[in-house]
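_Full entry_
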Amino acid sequence: MYDTRFLVRRNTEYIREKSVQLRLHKLACLHQSGSVAPIDAQLKAPNGGTLLGYGWRAACNGADLVSDKLRARLGGKLGDFYLRIGHGDVMSFDPAKGANHDLALAARFQDT
């Protein structure tokens, strides 16, 4: 099979790079024609609510990282997800007799 992921990634990055140039060109054309007013160069300082929200989000992210590290150190780290495959009907199905199906391993070989 032909792997297209490299081409897709390259084309996506190319479009992302060129879109900036195309937007700047379009804005320059609009500015020369007079349909767009000039952009004010002064930047406004963020207000207190914005800064408090940013601080709260940063503190929550930091707390999540610390709790994940502590959980991993104490042995309570989240495990990998496995799909159990077994046979039987609704009344006779026993999950303990099923086999683990490693989704990461299956995803690794899906394109071949």
Observations:
- The mean pLDDT is 77.
- The longest strand covers residues 82-85.
- The helical segments are 5-33, 48-73, 103-108.
